[in-house]
Amino acid sequence: MAKFKAVLIEKADGGQKVSLTDFDDANLMDGDVTVRVEYSCINYKDGLAVTGMAPVVRRWPMIPGIDLAGVVEQSTHANWKAGDRVVLNGYGLGETHLGAWAEKARVKGEWLVPLPEGIGTKEAMAVGTAGFTAMLAVIALEQHGVLPSSGPVVVTGAAGGVGSVSIALLSKLGYQVIASTGRASEADYLKSLGAAEIIDRAELSGPAKPLAKEKFAGGIDSVGSHTLATLLSMTRYGGAVAACGLAGGMDLQTSVAPFILRGVTLAGIDSVQCPQPRRREAWKRISTDLDRKKLAAMTTEVPLDKAVETASTIVKGELRGRYAVRIV
User: Fold this and answer.
1) Which three-class secondary structure string do you get for 48-102?
2) Does 254 have pLDDT greater than 90?
3) Residue 23 confidence (pLDDT)
4) 111 and 158 in a common domain
5) Are residues 144 and 191 located together in one domain of the fold?
6) 7 — phi, psi (to 5°)?
7) N or C: which end of the chain has fewer CB within 10 A?
8) What is the mean pLDDT of residues 27-43?
9) HSE on the CB side for 134, CA within 13 Å?
10) Which of 43, 36, 33 is nearest to 102 (CA)?
11) Are residues 133 and 99 in the same domain?
């Protein structure tokens, strides 16, 4: 098809305009693989892009959507052929390269990962960057010696996408999970995912002391700022915290005390430029370590024409779990 449906962000007087439009495939960017997109999803970064609240979009006009799952339509890349089922997270999709909220995407073959056996395109996007990031964070905790026997692990921003998948993964692996949230109404939901205890985010959100009482063997933090600093100060000797978000701010006002007095590790999690071997390991682990029933329970499907409206609320902290965007 010469034209296809796509969400487009364009510059406008004093800001930007976002619309669902007919996009000409002649205007797709360079790439050696064309994918027929079946599903995308909504992540915090997508919300920032469509609202213009942060400079996520670096090219104009831009099709948003940082994740896709679909079927290869055409390929000149040696690793891919028509009919292959693929998933893509990051690499600037929806930021510097035309993204996934469209019926078609042209990308570099080196960015793609084969869909693991038994995972459909909707499930892959129910996972999306949020779930992929959660898996990378769990792997980082394991690599730094934080195991189920080490003690409780706290997940901040627990009701969001990263938090929800993190809880489901950790609980299935046998960890005692403490969920930190500012939404007390989500307690039953978080416990259904495997949280053993719910704490109010206020316990972690104040200005941090250099060191506080040791409470957690580790943590997965998607909030940043005071929350991450306080979490570090409460981490037990030899523990680790995986940092993967900034919903509470980019600043980090902490001290060296947790690192030099308790041997705490701060592990940064990047999903955008994550190397291919690590990507494939994470997707393989997702296929075995994520409870599919819990994934389904935390996921809401929305059509493409509702994606912008839905994404606009994620930056307000109003969405729970994961949102898969049905493209076709």
Assistant:
1) HHHHCCCCCCCCCCECCCCEEEEEEEEECCCCCCCCCEEEEECCCECCCECCCCE
2) yes
3) 98
4) no
5) yes
6) -85, 135
7) N
8) 97
9) 31
10) 36
11) no
Task: Return the DSSP state at 155.
Answer: E
Evaluated on CA atoms 275, 54, 310, 326, the torsion sign reads: negative
For residues 27 and 58, state if they share a domain.
Answer: yes
Contact criterion met (CB below 8 Å) for 284 and 237: no
- Asked if 300 and 323 count as a contact pair (C-beta separation under 8 A), the reply is yes
- Number of domain units in the chain: 2
Give the distance, in angstroms, between the CA of residue 39 and the centroid of all CA atoms in the same chain: 15
Counting residues of the chain whose pLDDT is more than 70, the rounded percentage is: 100
Q: Are residues 157 and 261 in the same domain?
A: yes
Q: Which two tokens stand for residue 197?
A: 């205890």
CATH of the domain at 80: 3.90.180.10
Q: Is residue 282 part of a domain?
A: no
User: In this structure, is residue 121 part of a structural domain?
Assistant: no
187 and 81 inside one domain:
no
Question: Is the pLDDT score of 1 beyond 60?
Answer: no
pTM assigned to the model: 0.96
For residue 272, the one-letter residue type is V
The reply to whether 78 falls in a domain is: yes
Domain span at 221: 129-268
Residue 111: pLDDT over 80: yes
Please, are residues 134 and 157 in contact by the beta-carbon 8 Å criterion?
no
Give the tens place of pLDDT for each residue, 54-97: 999 999 999 999 999 999 999 999 999 999 999 999 999 999 99
Tell me the average pLDDT across 108-125: 97
Identify the band that residue 14 occupies on the pLDDT scale cut at 50, 70 and 90: confident
**Distance of alpha carbon 179 from alpha carbon 50, whole angstroms:** 29
Mean pLDDT of the chain: 97
Q: Determine, yes or no, domain membership for 58.
A: yes
Please tell me what DSSP assigns to residue 211. Answer: S
Residues in the chain: 328
The answer on 136 and 228 residing in a single domain is: yes
Question: CB within 8 A of 271, min separation 6: which ones?
Answer: 89, 90, 129, 132, 133, 136, 244
The arithmetic mean of pLDDT across residues 188-214, rounded, is 96
Amino acid present at 287: S
